[in-house]
Amino acid sequence: MKKGYSEERDLVHKLWERNFAAMRVPASGGATKKPLPDVVAGNGKLYLAIEVKTTKKDRIYVNKIQIDELEEFSQLFGAKSYVGIKFKNMKWLFLEPENVERTKNNNYRIDKEYALEKALEIDEITGIDKQLKL
């Protein structure tokens, strides 16, 4: 998986379009010992912490430590945590950590078909669209 800087910038731009102050967290991804997500955003009522994962494949693996740190940051900051998923040539999808499938090794796996069925879209996580997935 290559670095997701351009995808992170794209997500930040889309959040600003929805009236959320948003930024990439430059020290995320192991550059610090602090539990920082890739993107944080808020509008004064709702705060989001997002770990961004992108791929050209049909499956993404996420290390347990990254999810643990996302949830730790979110709890301290008062944010709703999401794994932001961007499969090549597709729209952004978002899963709450508790809805991400676990592997035998206690890490996480997101299959494209599962994400398409279960994940939320950006307007859902920002409160614009209240559609619920069944």
What does this structure look like?
With 134 residues, this protein is α+β, with helices and mostly antiparallel strands. It has a single domain (5-125), classed as 3-Layer(aba) Sandwich (Trna Endonuclease, Chain: A, domain 1). Helix content is 28%, strand content 28%. It has helices at 5-17, 64-77, 112-118, 122-125; strands at residues 21-24, 39-42, 47-55, 59-62, 80-87, 93-95, 101-102, 108-111. The strands form 2 sheets. The protein has a 5-stranded mixed β-sheet with strand order 1-2-3-5-6, sandwiched between helices. Strands 4-8-7 form a 3-stranded antiparallel β-sheet. β7 and β8 form a beta hairpin.
Mean pLDDT: 90
Which secondary-structure class do the elements indicate?
alpha+beta
Reported by name, the CATH topology is Trna Endonuclease, Chain: A, domain 1
Question: Strands of the largest sheet, in order across it?
Answer: 1-2-3-5-6
How would a textbook summarize the main sheet? 5 strands, mixed
Count of β-strands: 8
Helix content range? 25-40%
The CATH architecture classification is 3-Layer(aba) Sandwich
Number of helices: 4
Tell me the name of the CATH class: Alpha Beta
Radius of gyration: 14 Å
State the order of secondary-structure elements, H for helix, E for strand. Answer: HEEEEHEEEEHH
The share of residues in extended strands comes to 25-35%
Shape estimate: globular
Low-confidence stretches: none
| First and last CA, distance | 30 Å
| Number of separate structural domains | 1
